[in-house]
Each structure stands twice: as C-alpha cells, then as structure tokens.
C-alpha cells in the first residue's frame, strides 16, 4: 500500500495517533484540521474517475472538515480556562498501545472481509476501521466535553473513509447530505460544549451525572 | 569475508570518534560558538590511554570488566553489520537478534558497573539507562522486524543488501516510517538530545555520562570509544536503511559510508540544537512513538 492514496491514509492514521498522545485541546483541533485536509485529498486518490462529482466532494470536505468544524470547536472553547485534558484515564503510552491494537485488529479483520474486488486503494477499509476504533478509544478515555467531540469526529472520519470505497457509486447528493449532517452534529455539540462550559465552569463530562433540576 | 567488508569495518573503527565530535561541532556552529576541533576526541583518547587507572575500594571485578565487555560487544556487533552494503564479516540467519543482544549486553555491564561503585548518582544513571532501554529495545526490534518483513530476509546482510533496494521500490512509505523510527532510536541509544544531553555536567540531569562517572584513565577512554562506536553503528544502520548500496561498486559503497555517517552526525547535531531536552518522563513517550511507527510498519507488511 504505497501509492499516493495509501500515503495519505497512513498520514490519516498518524493524525489519529497524534490525537491519542496529545492532551492539549487546541492541538487536538489543529490535528483534526490537518486530518480534514488529508481526507479531502482522498477522493482524488480513490481511483474514481475525476469529474464534477469528485471535485465537489473534495471541495465540500475541505470546506467543512478543515474549515468550518475547527472554527466551531475553537469558538466553543474560547472561554474555557482549561486548555488540556487534565485527567485522561490512560496516558499517552496507553493511548498509543490501544491505538496500535486497533490498527492491528483493523488490518487483521479487513483482509478477511468480503470487500468489493478492485478497490483502487486497498488501505481504505482497514484505515476506516482503525479510525473508528481509535475514535472509540478517545470517546471512552477522555472526560472533557470537547475531547468527546474530537473522538466523535475521528469516528465519523472513519465512516467517511469507508464511504470512499464507494465514491464512484453513491450519488453526490447523499455524500453531501452526510457532510451536512456532520456539520449540524458538530455545530450542536459545539453549542452544548459552550453551554456546559458556561453552566458548570468546567468541561468535565463526568459532572453531568450530578445534574439535578 | 570480503575485502570490502574488512575495509568498511576498518573505516568505521577509525572514524567512530569523529561522529560525536561532528555532532557537537554542529551544535556549536548553530549556537554561534566555534566548538572543539574535530580531532579533539583522538587527542582525548590518546591522553586517557596514556594514564593509569584508579579504582575505588568499593568496586569489584564487574567494574573493571565493564569497559572490555562494552567495547568487545560493540566490536562484534560491528562485525555483524553489513557496513559495505553487502554483508558483514559474519552473517547468519537471525543475526539481527544477536546484534541487538550484543548492544544490550554492553548496556547491562555498563549499568552493573555503575551500580558496583555504590554511588547513588551512578545508580540513578544506571536506572535511567535501563529504564529508557525498556522502550528503545522493543522499538529497535520492531524496526529490524519490519525491515525483515519488507525484504523477506532474516539476516542483517540480507535485509540491508540487495533485497532492500527492491523493497524501497515496492514499499517506500513503510520503509520511510521505519527509518524515522530508527532515527529516534539512534538518538536514545547514542545518548544524544533530546533524550540525553552530552554536554551537561550536572549529575542529576545526566544519563549516559553519569553512569561512567567513576571510570578513569584507559577505562574511560575505552568506554568513550565504545559509545562513539555504538553511535557509528546506529548511524551506519540508518544510512544502510535509507541508502541501499548493494548494487554499487564495492569501493564506492565503502567510500559512501563516510559522507553518510557525517550526514547522520550533522543531522543529530541539528536536532539537538533545535530541540530542548525532553523531561525525563517524556522520553518514554518519544520512544513509544518510535516503537509505534515501527509497529505500524510491521502491521502494514504482515498482511
């Protein structure tokens, strides 16, 4: 797996690992921006014939995943006094080990999946599964509300990568609809993070269990 | 055993002390100083070898044994490495494990000698040396394993020889990741920044330097030469990974070792001056990252 598309996929994996090792929220947002740019390059490399479809998909991905979403997230934490994940339940080393386990599992499983023959980029399926699992790792080990949004984004990016295996076949409208859904989802989550921040003066999602009315 | 292998081994044995000096000189240049002359390590070695040795009464034979074992292990490891891009003096299937094991043996004796002095500083140095090795040795094994998988060879001569050139054409991304990982391992194994600071003279912050603090005279000279040789071996391994020279004419392949080693030393100097030393607790993070890169390479090749 060493053509252009595979190199991009490897870089996507690296950005996932980078999120797992870093605790700084603003750094996490920057890394997700980079991942958005990488994901926008993927349709070009996915082997589908270049046309309006691919061009719009690339531009839409770039605009939403690398432009709008990071902006919303930055807006959501602009008042937060805490800039880093203070108490992840696993440290960077544990995160990397779990990530590696996810990657190993994803590559092991992907070879046994009956996937459509002739995928131009053979790494799409394993990398998407690995992104999914690494997103779960972030979701389960972090407590800050914003980290959870980041984990959700990683998960969604995994699904996006999986969707690219069919990039030539799904109607453009469906894919743009998915992008819009993600945009709305993150927009709402950004609002929620902002509100949690304002109400509790902390982003610790564990404290949400103590809420009473 | 070929003439080019002997020539390359002789070359690396001669130029090994130059590498730390060149890295130090690069740091000096980048920080606006002139730095020690490049030939200073040879003068230091000559001076140290001409001195008598002083041994503390608390030390035992282990302390005196360490320099010989450190140097001996590094010399045998040098014989295993295909320095001319073809094959080492001795090569056999699985000799990569012997290579890593020999370097680990040298480290073990160094740590034991440090503990043998009974000094708390050296005990701390030994503990750090071994603690970091816990992370750098798996990374080294994963690097060698990924190289073995990418080339389908189990001997160092094979995996750094002709099959490597073919593997670069087939899997450049994997090999680049493995190379970067090896570079980080080199920084740790050669006790250079951002893992260790070779210029520090505060026992609390030193790692490699503090472990050999009680050695003097010829013993210290041998240890200094041994650690320079280890630096050179890793630099040669790195150069061999990025620059497979099996297809080159033998004299050229041997001669190319010299600029390649110099380039690695200069790069190390640049990294050292560009990065602050990591906090001790962060070094394992860096080395785990290196191991993760190499493990990713293994995963990509295993499928």
From TrEMBL, chain A:
* Assigned keywords, A-Z: Cell membrane, Membrane, Transmembrane, Transmembrane helix
Highest rank taxon of the organism: Bacteria
- Where located? Cell membrane
**GO cellular component assignments:** plasma membrane
- Classify the main location: membrane
Please list every transmembrane segment annotated in the UniProt record, as residue ranges. Answer: 50-69, 90-110, 116-139, 146-166, 172-196
Q: How does it sit in the membrane?
A: Multi-pass membrane protein
Q: Which InterPro entries match?
A: HyfE-like (IPR038730)
Question: Which PANTHER family is this protein grouped with?
Answer: HYDROGENASE-4 COMPONENT E (PTHR38601:SF1)
Protein name listed in UniProt:
Hydrogenase
Q: Which organism is it from?
A: Eiseniibacteriota bacterium
UniProtKB/TrEMBL annotation, chain B:
Please verify whether the record's keywords include Flavoprotein: no
The way it spans or sits in the membrane comes to: Multi-pass membrane protein
One Gene Ontology cellular component: plasma membrane
Q: What is this protein called?
A: Hydrogenase
Give yes or no: UniProt keyword Transmembrane: yes
Which branch of life, at top level? Bacteria
Membrane-spanning regions, if any? 65-84, 96-115, 135-156, 168-188, 222-243, 250-271, 283-302
Listed InterPro entries: ComplexI_Subunit1, NADH_UbQ_OxRdtase_su1/FPO
Write out the entry's keywords from A to Z: Membrane, Transmembrane, Transmembrane helix
Pfam families from the entry? Answer: NADHdh
Q: Where in the cell is it found?
A: Membrane
Give the chief site where it resides.
membrane
